[in-house]
């Protein structure tokens, strides 16, 4: 998933003094939720050494302990992928005519090396108001909240009109891995069928002082696509260098990529976002947002927004070198040099158009640019209708009066890219407010505010109830 980055002062409630915090601290189920969250974080689910199936089994055990019958809680394991399983579960609704609400979360995490981290990434640490650990933010908090929701609803005898479904999946974080959400669409379409699905995507935004700026809702997201730059060469002895060198050719092409910016694009999602944020941030940045909305060619205004990495990414397709491999011996001229370029493609732009542009930017026929793998179809985003937004605004207003709900274009990508094309409109909202630096998602020392997680739990518990009783 992605993250938000906003430098602004807003007149919002300061984290630490709201009704939700008091409600959460009163909750007798909070310790149980925390144990669920801890168990998920402490189950390593990285692709290299982890086991999503084990995480799914552990969550299934919690649901069964809460009274769910075996028939309604199912661990699935895709053939040939014993450790990349997941879980589907359901709380049955009373109306046979109304379609279900699906709570979707991936439980796999990005790789984390113990030697690089300050603390063990697969132990949940609580320090200075933060939870630390891989997946604490992306996205085991929300996954644990989904499980906890089902436990609470069952415990209190909640009888929703619509069925409430849960899907925990694997393979979201690794482009080349088997994607659990995609697998469910292909193999368990009926089991996950829903009026709408809720998952990760965007969060609440805090400024550096911990003030809430806005609660974001995912209106559209970019597509993640890898491209490979490769140069091959006859090579030779390193004592006799020649000008034609695979590493240098690749390095020059990468340098050109580093200096290239894709053109600014506007669509409904980033228009809605900048329109909403312009009022919130005000000043030079707010004025620049309005100027870009009026004229995407306003280079001075674009330059102001580009200083913010998140806004920069929301305005265009981006491509960046992420991996490099070259040479075969320290005393040989390289026969091969290869780089992975990860692009985040603006909604609606074909993969092939970006391929053509990268070829143009590489500007060297010896650099072969290719698409190594394609991950799922590209579909238009699900529309953010009042039926979707109203419950979010209602619960947000209860918990955080005065904090605006703002649609956003997410530079990252989520499993929505698999469900939307399958006809299950999927929205990203968490109610978890995160620090402006993103909290180390995908990086080192991933963290999230303890209070934010507990508030997110209250938010999502109430939100799913509202959707489940919508006619
Ligand atoms: Zn994620």
Account of the protein in words:
The structure is a single chain. Strand 4 and strand 5 form a beta hairpin. The chain has a 6-stranded mixed beta sheet with strand order 1-2-6-3-7-17. Strands 16-9-8-18 form a 4-stranded mixed beta sheet, with helices on both faces. Strands 12-14-10-15 form a 4-stranded antiparallel beta sheet, covered by helices on one side. Helix 9 (283-294) packs across helix 10 and helix 13 crosses helix 15. It has 15 helices and 19 strands. The chain is an alpha/beta fold and 471 residues long. Residues 1, 106, 138-139, 172, 200 line the site of zinc ion. Zinc ion binds at residues 1, 106, 138-139, 172, 200.
